[in-house]
């Protein structure tokens, strides 16, 4: 009997038992998946090579070093139509980063103000903030961009009738002109002084913390830091003889000359992304603050902390733990939404790439560059925010 | 016995409670508490009131009072200097423009004689959608089969033509119709595809898991506009010569793939929240993998993440506006196309058109978010700890 029962599986080792063997099934399905993927990739590659050969498109990245031949309105580094495609893409990348960084800063500030405002005891403020969030969360970002671009900024006066603002700034439908700083000799010393100031401020803050832990005495480290960060460069600046002049914009007959200009494309993209993302950040902030249990506030009040200190020392650090992960994805969203620049002709990475794609037909290479850049930006932001999150996270035993 | 109940100075009944003092009730107290509680609050209230007084009357004035409601062409909405009828310095909404172009905003350049077809599709869609959205209406299964199985086929033949109907090519489609088609197909494709991707990401098979992780993370890492560019520029490159894919179909593929990746992550969140005991319980009952997922895990997981799913739908609906960048005329695209129409081009036309488009988008998205809130409360079985 025993022999029979041990032999039974061997004798019935046929297709039937193989089908019901989870291990075999798993290998089988994976093998099929790999085969299918390889077949599809093979088929696509074959078609692509054939299509490229027929249209005489050279593949590879050699096109990056040929002459671009198109102009870019706003550029952070020197660029002319004689520059290469590679440089044009670099200009686009820098513009993307510029919009992303400025947008993230502004959206965070507006978002925190509105998010806290929604929780205000003041009925009017709370309602105003709610209306803001509900309006901006429910319309497409592209529409917000067009709203600023063709609704608001295009209505500004012609360059001839520019609105004069304080500090020699002018506003017209070609953008905001402002004095361009020209840095004289030795200005780099000021930057060095700023760097030293920041490092010194960090040391002072750390020392103040350690002293408070040891002795309980407090030190006005915030004021000391401000004095170091602002005072040191200012003193250096005066000591080396104020090497800074401005190139003022001057109203000519038809246009403004001199100065620097922020174009309406950048302004509308920046404003739209800031306002749109701020609505989402506001909701995240609100959820974060509501997520801190009421007992924490009451306990700190019982310890005798003042309301401002309760917020700063008890509520905010705990709310940040809830806020940071979704905040990261909002930052990533803003960076990705900056690609909407192409709709209004601001030369970001996607817009420049699109122009190159139309001129050269190098679709695969351009799309590959886009993907590599955006994926790296995503990964870098994630790494930074994860590091920040790890610092803020609850320290458990 | 000594109790003298007849004493006139002893009350036989309790006094009614007095109303709260006037400073503690009514409008005065409400204002004190909610608007003027502290000096800081008072300042904020004054600032907010100043902002409202500055913005609301001006907005109402522009949108309604000074607005032009009827007119035949641009002269109704342009000032004398611009070649119109309005006095100098006039500025107001040009609703006459929206009124004249309304049909186009809804259907694009769909032939006038055939517009009963999209209208019929729209009516059928509403008739099938409303009962599925109201929880108390019975026969949800049949309803879902009709909406997601039969309706798309009927709608395709009605909109595109064939079977005796005149063929209307997709480049003629446009307006809100295209926005809704893109959203409906995107939603109908991304939900099942997202579920499959989420299951694949949690699978024990390394090859399938790797494929799903790479797919989801790459799509989530790049902007939709690059996905749309890929669909519109690279798809023709990938196919054998002679194969052409309709422009609308390319956009549909791009939008659906993009939404699936986001949907997969939302559903994975729900899957992770299901306790291990549920999986083990299903295993011990002898259910197979798909039975386990279909009968035990998915109903619970989906229910948990309904808000996230609806948020993805809202995002998808808003994202459909991006197809105007690759040369299609959805609602936003057709509104913008009409800014250049010389019959109506004035200084106020763009703002009016954008406000109209924004309002339509807002209605849909706000409706979806309200419905998700309602479903959340409806499905809350009170088991939350």
Looking at this protein, list some descriptive labels:
heterodimer, A: 397 residues, alpha+beta, MetI-like fold, 3 domains, 4-stranded antiparallel sheet, two-stranded antiparallel ribbon, 13 helices, 67% helix, globular, B: 385 residues, mainly alpha, 2 domains, 14 helices, 0% strand, flat
In short:
The complex is a heterodimer of chains A (397) and B (385). By secondary structure, chain A is of the alpha+beta class.
Write up this protein.
The complex is a heterodimer of chains A (397) and B (385). By secondary structure, chain A is an alpha+beta fold. Chain A has three domains: 2-54; 85-179 and 248-392, MetI-like (MetI-like fold, Orthogonal Bundle); 185-241. Chain A is 67% helix and 7% strand. A four-stranded antiparallel sheet of chain A has the order 1-2-3-8. Chain A has a two-stranded antiparallel ribbon with strand order 4-5. Chain A is globular. By secondary structure, chain B is mainly α. Chain B folds into two domains: 59-105 and 343-385, no CATH class; 106-342, MetI-like fold (Orthogonal Bundle). The radius of gyration of chain B is 29 Å and the shape is flat. The mean pLDDT of chain B is 87. Classes of the chains: A alpha+beta (397), B mainly alpha (385). At the A-B interface, helix 3, helix 5, helix 6, helix 12 and helix 13 of A face helix 2, helix 7, helix 8, helix 12 and helix 14 of B. Chain B: Belongs to the binding-protein-dependent transport system permease family. HisMQ subfamily. Chain B: The chain crosses the membrane at residues 42-65, 116-134, 141-160, 172-199, 211-239, 251-274, 351-369. Chain B: Its main location: membrane.
């Amino acid at each position: 009997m025993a022999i029979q029962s041990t032999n039974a599986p061997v004798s019935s080792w046929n297709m039937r038992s193989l089908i019901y063997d989870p291990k075999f099934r798993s290998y089988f399905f994976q093998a099929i998946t790999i085969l299918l993927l390889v077949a599809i990739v093979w088929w696509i590659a074959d078609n692509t090579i054939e299509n490229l050969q027929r249209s005489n498109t050279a593949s590879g990245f050699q096109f990056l070093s040929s002459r671009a031949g198109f102009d870019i309105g706003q550029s952070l580094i020197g660029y002319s139509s004689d520059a290469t495609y590679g440089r044009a893409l670099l200009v686009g990348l820098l513009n993307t980063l510029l919009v992303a960084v400025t947008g993230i800063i502004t959206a965070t500030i507006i978002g925190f103000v509105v998010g806290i405002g929604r929780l205000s005891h003041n009925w009017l403020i709370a309602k105003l903030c709610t209306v803001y969030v509900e309006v901006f969360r429910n319309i497409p970002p592209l529409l917000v961009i067009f709203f600023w671009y063709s609704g608001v900024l295009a209505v500004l006066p012609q360059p001839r009738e520019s609105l004069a603002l304080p500090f020699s700034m002018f506003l017209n439908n070609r953008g905001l002109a402002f004095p361009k700083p020209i840095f004289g000799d030795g200005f780099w010393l000021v930057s060095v002084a700023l760097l030293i100031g920041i490092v010194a401020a960090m040391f002072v803050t750390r020392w103040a913390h350690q002293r408070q832990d040891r002795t309980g005495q407090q030190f006005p480290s915030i004021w000391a830091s401000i004095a170091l960060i602002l005072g040191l460069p200012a003193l250096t600046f005066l000591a080396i003889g104020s090497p800074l002049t401005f190139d003022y914009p001057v109203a000519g007959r038809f246009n403004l000359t001199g100065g620097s200009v922020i174009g309406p494309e950048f302004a509308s993209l920046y404003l739209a992304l800031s306002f749109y993302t701020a609505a989402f950040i506001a909701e995240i902030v609100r959820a974060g603050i509501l997520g801190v249990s009421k007992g924490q506030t009451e306990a700190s009040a019982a310890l005798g902390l003042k309301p401002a200190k309760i917020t700063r020392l008890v509520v905010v650090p705990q709310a940040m733990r809830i806020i940071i992960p979704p905040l990261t994805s909002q930052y990533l969203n803003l960076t990705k939404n900056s690609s909407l620049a192409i709709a209004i002709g601001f030369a970001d990475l996607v817009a420049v790439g699109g122009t190159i794609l139309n001129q050269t037909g190098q679709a695969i290479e351009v799309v590959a560059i886009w993907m590599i850049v955006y994926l790296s930006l995503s990964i870098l932001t994630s790494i930074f925010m994860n590091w920040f999150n790890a610092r803020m996270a609850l320290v458990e035993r | 016995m000594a109790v003298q109940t007849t004493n006139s100075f002893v009350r036989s009944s309790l006094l009614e409670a007095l109303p709260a003092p006037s400073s503690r009730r009514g409008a005065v107290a409400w204002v004190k508490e909610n608007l003027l509680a502290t000096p800081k609050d008072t300042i904020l209230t004054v600032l907010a009131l100043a902002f409202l007084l500055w913005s609301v009357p001006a907005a109402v004035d522009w949108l309604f009072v000074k607005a032009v409601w009827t007119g035949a062409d641009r002269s109704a909405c342009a000032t004398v200097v611009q070649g119109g009828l309005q006095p100098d310095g006039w500025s107001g909404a040009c609703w006459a423009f929206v009124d004249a172009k309304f049909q186009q905003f809804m259907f694009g350049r769909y032939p006038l004689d055939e517009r009963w077809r999209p209208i019929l599709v729209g009516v059928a869609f509403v008739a099938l959608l409303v009962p599925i959205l109201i929880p108390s209406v019975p026969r949800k299964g049949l309803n879902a089969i009709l909406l997601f199985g039969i309706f798309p086929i009927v709608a395709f033949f009605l909109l595109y033509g064939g079977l005796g109907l005149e063929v209307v090519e997709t480049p003629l489609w446009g307006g809100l119709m295209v926005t809704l088609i893109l959203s409906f197909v995107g939603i109908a494709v991304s939900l099942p595809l997202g579920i499959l991707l989420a299951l694949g990401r949690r699978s024990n098979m390394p090859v399938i898991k790797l494929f799903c992780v790479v797919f989801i993370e790459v799509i989530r890492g790049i902007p939709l506009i690059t996905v749309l560019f890929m669909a519109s520029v690279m798809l023709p490159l990938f196919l054998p010569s002679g194969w052409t894919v309709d422009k609308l179909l390319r956009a549909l593929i791009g939008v659906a793939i993009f939404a699936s990746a986001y949907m997969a992550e939302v559903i994975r969140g729900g899957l992770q929240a299901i306790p291990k005991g549920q999986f083990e319980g299903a295993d011990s009952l002898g259910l197979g993998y798909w039975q386990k997922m279909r009968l035990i895990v998915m109903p619970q997981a989906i229910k948990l993440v309904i808000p996230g799913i609806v948020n993805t739908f809202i995002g998808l609906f808003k994202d459909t506006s991006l197809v105007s960048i690759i040369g299609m005329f959805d609602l936003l695209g057709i509104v913008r196309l009409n800014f250049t129409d010389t019959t109506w081009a004035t200084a106020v036309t763009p703002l009016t058109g954008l406000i109209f488009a924004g309002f339509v988008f807002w209605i849909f998205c706000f409706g979806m978010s309200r419905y998700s809130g309602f479903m959340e409360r409806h499905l809350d079985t009170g088991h939350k700890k």
